[in-house]
Amino acid sequence: MANNYIIGRTERVRELKALLQQKQAVYLSAFFYAGKTVLLDQLAKALEGTVLRFDMGRDDWNQFQSQAQRTPDCTLLIDSLHRLDDATAQALSTLIANLGDGQRVVMAGRAQLPAYLHQLCATNVVAVLDKDFVLFDEEEIIQLFLEYGVAIKPEDAAWLKQNTWGWPVPLHITAQRLQRDPSRDIREIRTEVVKELESLLIQDVVEAFPDAERVLLYNLSPFFSFTEEMARMVTGRADAPKLMREIAQKSYMLLDEKNGRYAFVPFVRNALFNEMKNSYTDDYIRNQYRRAALYHELQGDATEAVRIYML
What we know:
The chain has helices spanning 10-19, 36-46, 61-69, 86-97, 118-122, 131-134, 138-147, 154-164, 168-180, 186-204, 211-220, 228-235, 240-250, 266-279, 282-298, 302-309; strands at 25-29, 50-55, 74-79, 104-109, 126-129, 225-227, 254-256, 261-264. It starts with 9 loop residues before the first helix and ends with a helix. The protein contains 16 helices and eight strands. It has 311 residues and is α/β, with parallel strands linked by helices.
C-alpha cells in the first residue's frame, strides 16, 4: 500500500517493557497483518541494551540460537512463529525454558497459542497477549487517519473499531480513500474494503495452508459453527477434528469454543464461502448442506435440520 503511514504506539511499547520486568517471555497473538511486526520494530528501538531479531522461515535458526547463547544480557525478538517447523519448535521451547537471568524474549505469531508454549504458560514462564493488545484502539485509529491528513469524528473511530476490530489493513485502506476523496462516507467505503480483504485472505493466507486443511476450511465454510462430529460428517474426513485443532492452534481462521465446538471468525467465513461458491458447483455445496442437515436430524434437532434442508 502506498503511503502506508506508521503511527507511534508509545503506550503499547511501554506496557510491553513493563511486562518484561515481570516475565521473561511474552507471546503476541493476532491474525495476519495485525501490526505485530511493526510493534516489534518500535519495541526494538525503545529497548536498552542488545536486541537480537529473528524471523521464522527467513533467518537462520542455528545462527540465531548460537548468538543468543553467547549474549547473556539481551532481548530476543522472534517474529512469524506461524512459519515454525516441529524441530525448531522444540528448540525454541528449550531456548525459552533455559533463558539466562538477564535475557528476555518477545515472540509474535498468528496462532492463538502454539501447542509448544502450553507447558511454558502453565509454569508461568510465558505471558500471552491476544489480538486486543495488538490491534488499534479508538485513539490510535484517530491518530492513524491524521497521519493521512484526515480528521475523523470520535463516533466514526468507534464505528471503525467495532467493525474492523482495529485491524490496521482495512483502516489504512479506508484512510487512503478518504485522503483521495474526503467527501466519501466511511461506512460506504467498508463494502469495497471487505471485498479486497477477502481476496487478500484467500490469496495470501488460505492458499498457503496444506491441501487437506484448505479443503476442510472450504467444505465447512457454508456454516458459521460446528461440532467435531458435524465436521466429520460434512467433510467425510475421520481426521477432521485433528485438522481443526491444528488450524485453530496456528491461526485465527477457526476459533476453538471448547467442548468440541468450533466457529469461524465471521470475516474469514465470508471470504471462504464466497471463494467456495466460485470454485465448487452448486450441487457440491448443496450436498454439504444435506450432510449438515442429516447430522442435526441424527442429533434430534429437527428444527435446525429443517432450516438447513431449506437453504
